[in-house]
Amino acid sequence: MSKQPTSKRQWRDGAAPSAKKTAKPSKSKARPKNETGKTASQPYGQKASDGIKPQNAPKQRAAKAKKLVVRNPNQKIMEHARDLKERRSDLSRMEPERLQKVLAASGVGSRREMEEWINNGWVTVNGKTAQLGDKVTPDDHVTVKGSIIKLKWADRLPRIILYYKQEGEIVSRDDPQGRVSIFDRLPQAASSRWVAIGRLDINTSGLLILTTSGELVQRFAHPSFEVEREYAVRVLGGLTTEQMRSLTEEGVMLEDGLAKVERIYEQGGEGANKWYNVVIKEGRNREVRRIFESQGLTVSRLVRVGFGPIGLPNRLKRGQFYELNPAEVANILKWAEMLLPGEYRRKKA
pTM for the whole thing? Predict the structure, then answer.
């Protein structure tokens, strides 16, 4: 007869969590064995014949990220920033927006997901089933799957934070493996939610931009805008001059299409390890790693150091975040050709 587990950890590793009590386990039936070959105890109420269903791993605890504190700018900049923060757009003057765009900006789901829901007939506007291509205004009443949705409109300046992502962190809110998410470490956005502009895989560190503006995410991340991403890459070995020329002029064919490097140059290194600075205009999954793998090299360290007009601040340490002040946010919106609160596009004649 096997020894009963003496701790919660042993109990967890030996059997799945208990379901509701249904019947006492039969003494005559043999107990199942775990991966180590040892007999595992069954939680009370679960029969051995029921089988063990896979369960989500327990969520790892994550310490909150520290905020980078910087010196206040001069009085003139502070007054300008205060004015920008207090500005509001007149909702009655806002142009109609595509329904899926407004729903995504309101935190209901992604644009693609909203398009599917609209096609499925799960969205209504003013009591009528919505169609793909419909536009809405602040005066419209929208329901999704029978629930009334309070639409959020870009009537004020969005928030933007820069986070120095560490290796081992994921850029997702849901993870069956219970790994540490960057959203566990960042402060919550009042009456809104943070959206990451592009993702970094679990083994990549560096600059991660998050904002409360869905439109700004689109301007940064959508391939049609060709926003540059800059990386510091460490590899074992090195590229020849001909290989670097080929990557920038001809590109390399990967399994999901042609990949081209905008700029690449050597940044030194120690021993067999060499560092390269690489700039690309796409954000495909593991693209930089796959580009180097196509040249017979394995990336041992990958750090994003720039995205569009934003670079990784020198004072920002790993695991820290910095929130842009309103004046800095306004400059990013101007770069993205987005309107500031209180500004309106002139109607074409």
Answer: 0.72
Active site residue 140: no
SS3 at position 150: coil
Instruction: Using DSSP bridges, classify how beta strands 205-211 and 299-307 pair: parallel, antiparallel or unpaired.
Output: parallel
The position carrying tokens 């770069």 is: 335
The beta strands (E) that lie in the chain are given as 66-67, 97-98, 123-125, 128-129, 135-136, 142-144, 147-149, 160-165, 195-197, 205-211, 229-236, 252-254, 257-259, 263-266, 273-280, 299-307, 310-311, 320-323
Q: Mind listing the pLDDT tens digit for each residue in 271-325?
A: 889 999 999 998 889 999 999 999 999 999 999 999 999 999 999 999 999 999 9
Are 206 and 304 within 8 A, CB to CB? yes
Catalytic residue among 83, 90, 139, 201: 201
Q: Which among 207, 204, 245, 214 has a CA at the least distance from the CA of 229? A: 207
Question: Per residue in 26-69, pLDDT tens?
Answer: 444 444 444 444 444 444 444 444 444 456 777 777 888 999 98
